[in-house]
Amino acid sequence: MNRFSLSPLFAAICCCLCCSTTVADDLAPLSDEFDSAASLTNWQRLNTTEGWAADKLETHDVDTSVAGKMRIMPYTTSWYRDLTGPLVYKEVTGDFVVTTELDVQRRGGAAGRPVPQFSLGGIMIRTARSITAAAPVPAAAPSTVLPWPPSGYTTEWTPGTENYIFLAFGNAIGNTPANQWSYEVKTTIDSNSTLYYNSLGVPADEGRVTLQAVRRGNVFVLLRKHGPSGDWIVENRYTRPDMPQTLQVGITTYTDWNNIQANSMFGGNSDFQGQYHHNRNVMTAANGFSVNPDLVVDAEYFRFQRPDSSITETTLNALALTSAGAGTRFLSDTALASVLGDAQAVLGPSYTTPLATYLQNSGLSGSDATTSADPDGDGMTNITEWANGTDPSTGTNAQHIRHIFVEEGGVTYLALAYARLTGGTESTNQYQLGDLTYHLEGSTDLETWDLQPVAITAPSSLPALTTPGYEWGCVRLPAPVDLADRGYLRFWVEG
């Protein structure tokens, strides 16, 4: 066997295995700009995952009630101690920065802030509970107040298991001028809630807010910005070593605290009977409850990102906090101004929504649905699987990367055929589709990849691609087989 006869085989192996990925941010697929109603199914609901059988959201949709926004309108409900309210979330593993812009309003388009005290929406970071059947079995009517423990019924819920942090915006104070919004901050450990609320730094007549939460290790920092041109305010910081690597992160909404108490759902810290009654019920007049819910939250976006390397536990712990009581503390006065606030609130890559949908349709969620994850262990990251049209949930994939031989003018060349998304632009050694780049490279020694391949039309003999939205791309080595000493081709994806 001569020297060159080994090259095609070696090249074929290289074509199949050298599918590396450079990713700007592996959390990007979790982000949502709310420009497609289909993205609603990418979000999880606590009512469903914990099995409460009590949907506490009267309205929850994306790009439907309001174009380009997620609308959330809760029934009367609350979060405090063992009271469990609604949460729309995604699972996030490791360090993160999340940012959302909210428009917090009254029901029915009425002017001013929400009327009832503790009617707010915001970012919640929560420890998941390993329960899936919280509702009582057998089912009990809304009017039935079960004792605690519920004799004759079973439930997986137990008191003392709530652990979360949130920063929310709306009406926390209660009897303030109708044009004055306020915020609430709460941390809960084993259902022991510590909270405060204020309107410090909130301009009158401003119902829009941008909220941001940062995690680095055990340290969490909460920030807020009021109106499009406001300065970022560093609100508070919590050290929570109890919180695991994977957390539920998303949007919570709650309203009408007075009627939580009026319906005997919180008679004190140890009133587990009342709190369970709240948790398992949808509080409506039709179900026999006195209620006055008054909150509508429209989210413009919810963006997930990894924190910059300069954001460490040390630098976060050095931030001066508004919560300390020494006045409003602004991010612009800190060393992290260039890496937090607006610097982290940037629009995600153009492929964020289609990649997220592709992964969700493949049955992936949480840490398995990040850009750089490889849940099927086949050596191809999720973004590469999507770019190549293969299934990220199973290691058995169609052959969407092939080494072939092509003839031009009676001369034979080694070529690489690869499946790619349609609609891109081809250049000498790249295929560009928005923020997604396919790099096509050649080499003579597998070390230096500076040999520019030649883009050619994919041969018609290639098998038809069955995944909609994909086509064959093809490049060949510049030198024909009978003249080349050896040659190799590879492709990799950058996003």
Characterization of this structure:
This protein has 495 residues and is mostly beta strands. It folds into 2 domains: 117 residues, Immunoglobulin-like; 316 residues, Jelly Rolls, CATH 2.60.120.200. Helices cover 11% and strands 32% of the residues. It is built from 7 helices and 23 strands. It has a 7-stranded antiparallel sheet. The chain is elongated, with a radius of gyration of 27 Å. The two termini are 41 Å apart.
Summed up:
The protein is mainly beta and 495 residues long. It has seven helices and 23 strands.
Keywords summarizing the entry:
495 residues; mainly beta; Immunoglobulin-like; Jelly Rolls; 7-stranded antiparallel beta sheet
Note the total helix count: 7
The largest sheet is: 7 strands, antiparallel
N to C succession of SSEs: HEEHEEEEEEEEEEEEHHEHHHEEEEEEEE
CATH topology of the largest domain: Jelly Rolls
Widest sheet, order of strands? 2-5-14-7-8-9-10
Name the helicity range.
Answer: 10-25%
CATH architecture of the largest domain: Sandwich
What percentage of amino acids are in beta strands? 25-35%
Task: Identify the CATH class of the largest domain.
Answer: Mainly Beta
How far from one another are the termini?
41 Å
Calculate Rg over CA atoms.
Answer: 27 Å
